[in-house]
Specification:
- It is a single chain.
- By secondary structure, the protein is of the alpha+beta class.
- Among the domains are: 56 residues, 5' to 3' exonuclease, C-terminal subdomain (DNA polymerase, domain 1), CATH 1.10.150; 116 residues, Dna Ligase, domain 1, CATH 3.30.1490.100.
- The chain has 15 helices and 12 strands.
- The strands form 3 sheets. Strands 5-6-1-7-8 form a 5-stranded mixed sheet. A 4-stranded antiparallel sheet has the order 9-12-10-11, with helices on one face.
Length: 373
Amino acid sequence: MDVSRKIIHVDMDAFFASVEQRDNPELRGKPLVVGGKSERGVVAAASYEARKFGIHSAMAMQKALKKCSNLIVVRPRMSAYKAVSLQIRDIFLEYTDLVEPLSLDEAFLDVTHNKKGMPSASQVAQEIRSLIKERTGLTASAGVSINKFLAKVASDINKPDGFTLIKPEEAYAFVAALPIEKFFGVGKVTAGKMHSMGIRTGADLLQWSKDDLKSAFGKAGKSYYHIVRNEDSRPVNPNRARHSVGTEDTFEQDLHDREEMLNRLEVIAYEVVKRMEKSHFVGKTLTLKVKFADFRQITRSRTLDHSIQEVGEIMNWTRLLFAPVEIPPQGVRLLGLTISNACEEGIQTARQLVLPFFAESEHKPTPTQGMTG
């Protein structure tokens, strides 16, 4: 366990909703969500007043409205959120260049050697929170510890407007007492499996060998083994590479016809290729995401031995991945495609290979185009 590092995780409190309440005093103190107002809208962010009703991000808007009859729905203003995010980023850079943004509203900072020569990471974090409040009128929570995992968990402990320090000498006891659901990468399904194995806290996880965890959880098992021992050497990377490019579409009406779904997937494939071209990204793994009307979700993936760069090839593999998917009577509400597993091969030529698909408007991929054995 490396105890020499000083890592801060800063997380804005109910960011989108807080910006809306800041900019419109009439919304302050009221249950508010940011998101789409349509029948198929989804909650992008919920104020703390709304959270008291059990409303949270990614919840269907119709469900949120049923939970709170006087819920206020505000359309997203991404330009406003991005402007505030840049203000916050500038504050971070006053203290360190080692800033790794995770999204518009959260970031890791490595202040082991900070620009102001401050010996205390806690003091740095508190100054940053104070400056954010002074310059933006918004509150942020922060966690400080010796690695990314502990700092991120710490920032969530005393939300909103909170601060938590996990000292090096407290790290082992803290992780041992931590519920398994708080560990990175442990969702409901994995947590359920762990519970069935008698793993409910970090202390329980410590009893399992690396080989047994790898056997039960694959590569993630190795990560669990190290993280529970506070062996998290991940650096704060200000130039974090893109790991995937994807897009998805939630439909106004549930889809039932497979051919229509494939047509929608082709539109999505074109958008994915556009985004790959824009970001100069290529990858070897294609993932299909299907969310059914009852909100059950499945993913299907295929990894190739070469980069995927063309709409035709994306659709060939998408058809193969989609073919065995059984569509329930209720239908499908969302489809998505993602390219991941980045590779160097083809990056330099991605631009000229991708552009022809948008120049030739009559291009239609055929079932055999781009197939490999």
